[in-house]
Amino acid sequence: MSWFLRKKTDCSRTLPPASSDPPCDSAAPIPPPLSIQAPSEPITLANARSCACDSEAERAGEEKEKTALRELVEKLEREKERLTTNLAATRARLSVELAAAEGRRAHCGRVVAQLAQLRTELREEQRVRTEDVAQKDAEIGTLQAALAAARDAGARRDDARERFHFVLAYNGQTGSVSRTVLASDPDSLLYTMYCGEWEYPRDENGRAIITCHPDRMWSRSGKTPNTLALKSLPVISARQQFLRWEVWKITAKANS
């Protein structure tokens, strides 16, 4: 390659530049043709050998340059193959990672859907539990009210067992007598009347409707119930006592 450059340089030195040529004039006389001059130095065997050596050196240089170019091309080809292999491996690895990322994304989507379903089920369960708790609280309140009513009824029954509650048929006066006092003498008239076998009509509150106040009977007997005889009291049937009580209620309503 250097030989071609050298030849090109020599040719450019021997030929005049194109800009130095005189303008062409048709009226100017045409110069005579140039005569071929003989070389200044005769061509000898030494000159021929020198030219041959130069040619061999140039060919060796060209071969060397060609070898270097081939090595460079081979190196570039190997680099290209390496880069192509690395690119294919990187592409395959990225494809695997992309597939794994898609799988993880799908799994995350399923997990989110499951969480939403669990939240819905949890809210429904909490609503059902809240309703159950409210219903049970209502049932407990009802049972507590029933228990309180039963307790009050039991207390009233105990009080009724301990005391004799009455209402006077002729004036509506109410009162009660301790049954322990009446039971102090089971053979007395008071016990027979108010703690014995006598049955009295009852008002809406369960009080016995009577016509004689127990305290008056007690004072009349001189606080000794056995001295009071049955024949000393007017005999009034239960029906008559009830009728007297009803008449008194009607009269009280009319007067009010």
From TrEMBL:
Residue ranges the record marks as coiled coil: 59-93
Q: Where is this region: Disordered?
A: 1-39
Protein name as it appears in the record: Uncharacterized protein
The record's keywords, sorted A to Z, are: Coiled coil
Residue spans of biased composition, Low complexity class? 16-28
